[in-house]
From TrEMBL:
Source organism per UniProt: Chelydra serpentina (Snapping turtle)
Alphabetical UniProt keywords: Cell projection, Cilium biogenesis/degradation, Cytoplasm, Cytoskeleton
Stated name of the protein: Meckel syndrome, type 1
InterPro entries the UniProt entry points to: C2_B9-type_dom (IPR010796)
GO cellular component, one term: MKS complex
Length: 305
């Protein structure tokens, strides 16, 4: 049974928006739950249930001197769509020009040099992988369909993963086909290969957390996915897990002797449209529709019945 204040539902949610996706903003807040705060919670619950007087536990309060609280125990970041926040691992890797093999690597090398000149990166534990990063390609191509650790992707699964990674939007080509050719009676092998499945272009972004111990940031084994955001060409936005809202924070429990516990929240921080702007947009659409209607009536003429 889940503890109070934690969200047991880590499922995703699908949203639809007509606004440009560049306006999307997501606020992520991550916090390390100290062992002393857990001890305080465990001691308070049995005493409250049994109706006994609770001994004062002021010495266990979340105070820097008592619990060892450090600034990197907690972090918050507001992230835009496809905004790149470097991890410590990427900073250590791309700051050496010899490690850069692709144009994207060399671009990251230049950006990291600029960050170092401006005082270094502002984020420490929260970082992102954008649609063009290697992590995104590998994560989407290596998706498992079962819970088995020995699962080997089938030939079909690999081919379908390859197909999902194609970014070409074929809608302009499809739109140029005459309406009389709704059905292709004699399809070629190339036509069957390219059109047997709907291929909607999708862009992906991962918001990550480096949950390593003090002084050991930059190790891949401590990287955890906090949130996955996918947007397709039709304005459909998939967020997994969903925005926290009133459900409570999500939790990540690390393996190891200490079994450290982290909590994090995800919020929609996008700027809300003002009422005046919304009314102005509605008036613009009504004016556009009325002009289009007048244009069509002008083409038909008044003699048509």
């Amino acid at each position: 049974m889940e503890e109070p204040g934690w969200s047991a539902d880590a499922g995703g949610a699908v949203y639809r928006s007509r606004d440009p996706v560049r306006n999307l903003r997501i606020r992520v807040h991550i916090q390390r739950v100290t062992s002393t705060s857990l001890l305080l919670q465990q001691l308070q619950q049995p005493a409250a249930q049994q109706g006994k007087e609770l001994i004062s536990l002021a010495t266990f309060s979340a105070h820097p001197a008592a619990s060892g609280y450090r600034p990197d125990d907690e972090e918050e970041a507001v992230i835009g769509w496809q905004e790149k926040l470097f991890s410590q691992f990427e900073v250590d890797l791309y700051q050496h020009e010899s490690a850069c093999q692709t144009p994207l690597d060399r671009q990251y090398h230049q950006e990291i040099l600029k960050l170092e000149k401006s005082g270094g990166r502002k984020n420490y534990r929260i970082f992102t992988y954008t649609d063009h990063d290697r992590f995104t390609n590998l994560e989407e191509q290596c998706q498992k369909v079962t819970s088995s650790e020995q699962e080997v992707p089938s030939f079909l699964a690999e081919r379908m993963a390859n197909l999902r990674r194609r970014r070409q939007d074929r809608r302009p080509t499809e739109g140029s086909v005459l309406k009389s050719r709704v059905i292709t009676w004699e399809p070629s092998e190339e036509f069957i290969k390219n059109n047997h499945v709907i291929n909607t272009p999708v862009q992906t972004m991962y918001i990550m957390g480096d949950l390593g111990p003090y002084g050991t940031l930059g190790h891949r084994e401590y990287e955890h996915v906090l949130c996955t955001v996918k947007v397709d060409g039709n304005g459909v936005i998939t967020v997994k897990p969903d925005f926290t809202g009133t459900k409570g924070a999500y939790r990540i429990e690390l393996d190891g002797e200490k079994r450290e516990l982290w909590r994090y929240t995800i919020e929609n921080a996008s700027a809300q449209v003002q009422q005046e702007e919304e009314e102005r947009e509605q008036r613009m659409f009504r004016d556009l529709y009325s002009r289009h209607k007048e244009y069509l009536n002008g083409l038909v003429g008044s003699d048509f019945e």
